Every structure is written in structure tokens, then in C-alpha cells.
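look at this one:
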Amino acid sequence: MGQSRHVANIYDQKPSIEVNGSSVTSVTAEEFPLLKGMSLRRLLLAPGTIREPHWHVNGHELNYCLRGIALVTIFANGNDYHRFTITEGQMYFVPSGALHSIENIGGSECEVIGAVTNERPEDFGLSGSLGVMTDNVIGNTFDLPAEALAARSHSSTSTVIDSVERVDAPIRDDGRVDAYKFDIEAQEAPVDTTAGIAKLARKQYWNALEDISMYSLRIPDSGMREPHWHPGTAEMGFVAAGAARMTILDPDGSFDTYELKAGDLYFVPKAYPHHIEDMGNDEFHFLIFFDRETPGDIGIRAAMGAFGPEVIAAAFGLPAEQVPPLPFTPADGLVVSRLNPKDPVV
């Protein structure tokens, strides 16, 4: 089975920036032409380093912490200020244009996976933005003489990742709710069955979201994400752990079945039918991003109950008497149990 055009692997990409064990790696439409309306970033921060304050010009950002502990600071419109810690299984949202940073305050590496709502994201760093301004301009800004800041960097190129010389202890998360933080893995799963678990970072549960959402999906060997599609919504998934297989159908009748492993990301255009099943010995864990804050979903199991038996028979290409009774499912359950063995890998 060859590489699918629907799949790229972020571990195979060269980091756009690499500094003393920290790095930023992106998969955009340049590396993965199928992407539209979303792209993916992987941030690795060594202890004592910071992704410098920066802002995204053309997209919101939604991030999931895979491991480590970090301090996030966000300064948004007007005087909208946020400061909190995140750790494994927690998320944070950054509106487009908001100044923000993330700093590793732990003793081990911090890894964050983030989606931006643009296939070709653009951003500015604070260091380059200050560097391009004259000493007189910066001095006036802070009521200082120009010579007080003359030794600073005057480069218009942002540093992206810096070491931090901490002069005071960081303000730790004291448990207060923050509008831009969401503890998704602490959520009581809206979908929780033996066939799979889905935790949902969407507008219904996290009001701050705009034009993006994410499902944390875990499916064991005994379950399967049923054939389905998302009306009006594209899907970009990242494999955090495990192995899986997907099938996707294109409007011209061609289809693609491909294997997925850790580090892979895939893209499903709006309303394209697809399914996901576990292929390993343990569960797989997907971070599934959508380009709407409340994604729609049509699952085959529930949808079939809306049609009469003659329509179902025609869809299966069988005489009506040969169609077995199908279970009535009043609500889309997202995942189904695996009754039959896995199809062989070809």
C-alpha cells in the first residue's frame, strides 16, 4: 500500500526553526497540497525556553498539549489578558491577531500540537516587530530616552524561540476557569462506550472557540468509527498514538484506503464520506480538528433509519427480501462495535 495523497507525516518534515533542542514544525498547503482552511504545527520546547510572543495574521489557533507543562500568556483585544498553565491533555485557544507566548516551565520537554484556521498561516513575532522600529520610536512608547534601549536587537527577523532568564517565579495556574483554556481530557466524555470514547472541544462546551473545534477520539480494537461525513465541515486529523486505517471516497467514484501511524495527519474535504478503524493491538488516539466551532456529522447507521426498506434495498443492490433488518438508531453515536474481523491489509 503506497503513500496516500490524503496523508502526510509531521515527523518527516524539516523544522522551520530549530534552536538548542526546541523546534517548530509545520505542515501547510506547501507540504500537503490537499489542505484547505487548516494547517498543523508541532512545537517542541526544551526546559527554560519560550515560543516568543507572536500573533497570527490570518487564522485562529487551537492547541493540545501532548506532554510537559507550560505557561501560556495571551494578550488579546484592548486589555483582554490571560495567563495560565497547561499540561498533558489540556488545550488553549488563541484568536487571530492576539499576542501570545508559551514557555516551558517544567523539567522535561514540552510538546504541543496546534491547528491554525488557514492552510498558509502567517505570523509576526514581537522581537522583529520591535526591531524594525527606531530607538526614538520605542523610547517614546515607554517614556524613555532613545539611548536607554540602544543596545537592543534591531533585526526585523523574529527569534521565534528564546531561552528565558527567569527573574521571578511564574504565576502558576490556581485552578480558576479561563475562557481560553479547556481541560478536554478531564471532560466527562459525551461519547463513552466500549466501542470508543470521544471528548469534544466544540462551542457547546467551550464558548471561546471561533471557526475551529477538536475531538479527542480513542477507539480500541473492539470498535470502529462508522462510515460518515461532515456537512459543510472539513476534517484534519493527527495520530497521537496507535495505528489505524481509513477509507475515503472522492466524488468521481475513486476511493483511497490507507494506513495511519503516529505522527500522520490526514485531510478530508467537506462532506466526503470516510471511516476509521483500529489496526493495532491497542487503542488509537486521534486529535481531529474541524474548520467550524460546531461540526456537523452524518453517520450511516443513524441515517439509514430515515429511509424505507425499498430505498435501503436499492442502496445495497439487493432484492428487498434479502436485506436483513437494520437497527434503528435515533441519534448518531459516532462509534460502533466491531462484530467482524479486520479486513486484510492489501
Observations:
- The two ends are 6 Å apart (CA to CA).
- The CA atoms of residues 10 and 211 lie 23 Å apart.
